[in-house]
Amino acid sequence: MSKDSRKIKEKIDFLLSFVKEQSRKDNPYIKEYLQLIVELSKKINYRLPKKAHILFCKHCFSLRTLENTKIRVNRHKKNGALQKYLSLHCKSCGKIKKINLTKQKIQKN
Q: Is the pTM of this model over 0.90?
């Protein structure tokens, strides 16, 4: 990992924590910060952590709050196994983000 990509990852982590703090203060520039996070992650081909996917909508860059998000837990059978998904429906743009909740098999060393 090069120094530049390490610096960009640190900047992304800082911006994510900064956005969480500023969300309580109703900062009007939160969408610009979130767009900057996505642009930086695309620049170095860095996958954002799951907490970031839950934090904001990647389509309209709005923070997910209880007022603008509908949260559901969906279950259905797939290949005989029960699959659980967390469905986050953004009321601002209408897009749905699904996060898999089934337990991953942990490999023992």
A: no
